[in-house]
């Protein structure tokens, strides 16, 4: 666990994923991809902003499109009007639901997290494994 300047104030965070069997249907990374596409209309620009390759962005979008009942992202090929990508109405709904659930989980965890953090030994978890 990393620490702030004050030695008795540990940094902590929660991350929320929706997992179906052994695959992550949606988590923070995929949600960020959806949000990036909504903001930019571009897979390539989303990749640049998130520090991911175009291929990585496309593989996450492909997984999302396969995991849900309808595609979440529609890709438009280039041409005179240019290419791009956009969220479908289902994609917008999934992103909004995920962000709301994520916020609900953060609020719920915040009530108990300080108690848990107080029981963690100083310097524990610095190896990065859970």
Question: How would you sum up this structure in a few lines?
Answer:
This protein is mainly alpha-helical.
Averaged pLDDT: 83
Total E-strand runs = 4
Summing up helix and strand content along with how strands pair, one would put the structural category as mainly alpha
Oligomer: single chain
Order of secondary-structure elements:
EEHHHEEH
Global geometry: elongated
Read across the widest sheet, the strand sequence of neighbours is: 1-2
Strand content: 5-15%
The amount of helix comes to 40-55%
Figure out the total of helices: 4
The low-confidence parts are 1-10
Q: In whole angstroms, how far apart are the ends?
A: 11 Å
State Rg.
18 Å
Main sheet overview: 2 strands, antiparallel
């Amino acid at each position: 666990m990393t620490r702030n300047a004050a030695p008795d104030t540990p940094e902590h965070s929660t991350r929320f994923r929706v997992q179906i069997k052994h695959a992550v249907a949606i988590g923070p990374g995929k949600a960020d991809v959806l949000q990036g596409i909504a903001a930019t209309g571009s897979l390539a620009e989303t990749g640049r902003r998130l520090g991911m390759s175009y291929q990585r962005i496309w593989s996450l979008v492909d997984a999302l499109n396969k995991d849900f009942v309808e595609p979440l992202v529609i890709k438009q090929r280039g041409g005179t009007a240019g290419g791009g990508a956009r969220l479908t109405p289902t994609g917008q709904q999934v992103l909004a639901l995920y962000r709301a659930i994520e916020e609900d989980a953060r609020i719920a965890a915040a009530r108990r997290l300080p108690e848990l953090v107080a029981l963690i030994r100083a310097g524990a978890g610095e190896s990065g494994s859970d």
